[in-house]
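Run log // design_07
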């Protein structure tokens, strides 16, 4: 038992304090990180709202901090180094790895390991396997480091269905993942990147971050505007990042025949779909989940080079003592792109 607490989502609208894991002795191959910032993920908020089973390590899985302890056999990391949380590299031992499907490793999350902590990053200090963090270069701030995990979710989606040079793509939903998806699609070769987003402030931010066209999903002329933009063809790829039935339907409508619908958002409730609409256009429908360990290196490199921008994505930084209030605000409809928690406050 320690004198520090961590906070985990344990049920519907319930955040419970638990004893933080003891970090006084560092296990081999592990590091202890003093958490600087922890981002509140949309899945955290959904788990809080609905109360579905949620692994304790997921309660606060977007974090950055400074290494304060290094275990035996750790290479490439030292005390004082700034790091961000990643997923695990492929284990090489599970049935998926043995079959050659390393990107589908069954042990890519910290929660799958016997040394998994009993909580996530809603706490001042955390001990994790050294292979599950990435060092941050000087040009990447700790605040940006707390965004690396969701940014890599967007990177993974675009790498799964990458635009060809000259493609027109639409991104529906201007949350953090949607704004990052828009930037990655443009970097990957899309010539025209359309952001469809609610709220003038979100559309303005998307334009500042590089969207070539911004549109309102409530505009009754939305489909006509897309047709005019594409010469009557429709978009080549639609990245659905809002996670609701209306966005999926809109993406289906905006796609050209033979286009690709990439489902990035995560509906946590049943949605009504009409697959015949996909078949009528012979669409490719793809999904994406999380990320692979090696993709974090790409995200951090793009941040370091200034090719991926995060300005305007963080709405506020709140103290750990305010955590329950922040969850209530977010579940009540607060329009935040990303709220960070500072466990030191």
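design_07 sequence
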């Amino acid at each position: 038992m320690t004198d520090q607490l961590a906070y985990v989502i344990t049920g519907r609208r319930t955040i419970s304090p638990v004893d933080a894991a003891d970090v006084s002795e560092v296990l081999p191959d592990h590091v202890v990180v003093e958490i600087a910032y922890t981002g509140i993920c949309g899945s955290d908020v959904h788990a809080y709202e609905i109360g579905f089973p949620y692994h304790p390590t997921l309660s606060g899985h977007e974090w950055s901090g400074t290494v304060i302890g290094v275990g035996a056999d750790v290479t490439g990391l030292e005390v004082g180094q700034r790091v961000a949380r990643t997923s695990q590299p492929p284990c090489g031992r599970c049935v998926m790895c043995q079959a050659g499907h390393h990107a589908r490793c069954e042990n890519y999350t910290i929660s799958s390991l016997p040394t998994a902590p009993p909580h996530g990053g809603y706490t001042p200090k955390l001990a994790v396997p050294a292979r599950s963090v990435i060092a941050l270069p000087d040009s990447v701030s700790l605040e940006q480091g707390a965004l690396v995990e969701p940014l890599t979710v967007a990177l993974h989606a675009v790498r799964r269905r990458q635009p060809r040079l000259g493609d027109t793509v639409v991104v529906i939903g201007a949350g953090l993942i949607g704004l990052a998806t828009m930037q990655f699609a443009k970097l990957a070769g899309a010539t025209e990147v359309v952001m469809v987003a609610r709220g003038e402030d979100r559309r303005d931010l998307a334009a500042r971050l590089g969207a070539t066209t911004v549109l309102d999903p409530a505009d009754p002329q939305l489909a006509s505007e897309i047709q005019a933009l594409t010469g009557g063809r429709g978009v080549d790829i639609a990245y659905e990042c809002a996670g609701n039935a209306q966005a999926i339907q809109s993406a289906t409508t905006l796609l050209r025949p033979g286009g690709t619908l990439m489902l990035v958002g995560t509906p946590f409730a049943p949605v009504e779909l009409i697959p015949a609409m996909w078949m009528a256009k012979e669409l490719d429908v793809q999904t994406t989940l999380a990320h692979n360990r090696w993709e974090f290196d790409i995200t951090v490199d793009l941040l370091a080079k200034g090719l991926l921008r995060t300005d305007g994505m963080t709405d506020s930084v709140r103290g750990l003592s305010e955590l329950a209030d922040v969850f209530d605000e977010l579940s009540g409809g607060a329009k935040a792109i990303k709220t960070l928690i500072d466990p030191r406050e």
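The two ends are 22 Å apart (CA to CA).
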